[in-house]
Write a structure and sequence with these properties.
The protein is an all-alpha fold. It has 7 helices and no strands. 7% of the residues are buried.
Length: 163
């Protein structure tokens, strides 16, 4: 498009946003396919109860990272519902009972590790800013191809990459 000095049209802006969105989705799919999740083949023997728990948690983490919009929406809705419930007499009783619970502390720690602290409580958040920041940082790397090669190689070593 020749520069006529006129501001870009709304259609040009929408087209650019669509291109950026599609590129981010492509990067997200690549990272999701190639990302070695923590704990792969570490610690527990395969087939053991602990090994099954680790595998389940790794799958949950994969779902959270591959579907950030859905994860963010579900997290925001659950947080809002929990806060609403805490304002009721029954909810206040549960909140007081669980305030010093080791189970709740451990659950929070586990959630923070699985979600990589990407999700935000704010209901108006559509895409977690930490997730976008990580994608933009990776996309703005001086050598994205080398970064993706290292990611692919690490995935292959851990048995999570494409053949």
């Amino acid at each position: 498009m020749a520069d006529s000095g006129a501001p870009p049209s709304l259609l040009d802006s929408v087209r650019m946003q669509a291109l950026v969105f599609e590129e981010l989705r492509r990067i997200q799919r690549l990272v999701g396919e190639r990302m070695p999740l923590p704990g792969a083949r570490e610690g527990a023997a395969e087939g053991s109860e602990e090994g099954e728990q680790v595998e389940l948690l790794r799958r949950l983490q994969g779902v959270l990272l591959q579907h950030p919009l859905s994860a963010q929406a579900a997290f925001s809705a659950l947080m809002a519902e929990g806060r609403r419930f805490a304002t009721t007499p029954e909810g206040a009783a549960w909140k007081a009972a669980l305030a010093s619970s080791e189970l709740v502390r451990n659950g929070r720690l586990l959630w923070d590790v699985l979600s990589l602290n990407l999700l935000e409580e704010e209901q108006s958040t559509v895409v977690p800013s930490a997730y976008l920041e990580a994608l933009f940082r990776a996309a703005s790397s001086s050598d994205v191809e080398a970064l993706l090669r290292r990611l692919r190689d690490a995935s292959a070593r851990d048995g999570h990459g494409a053949p």
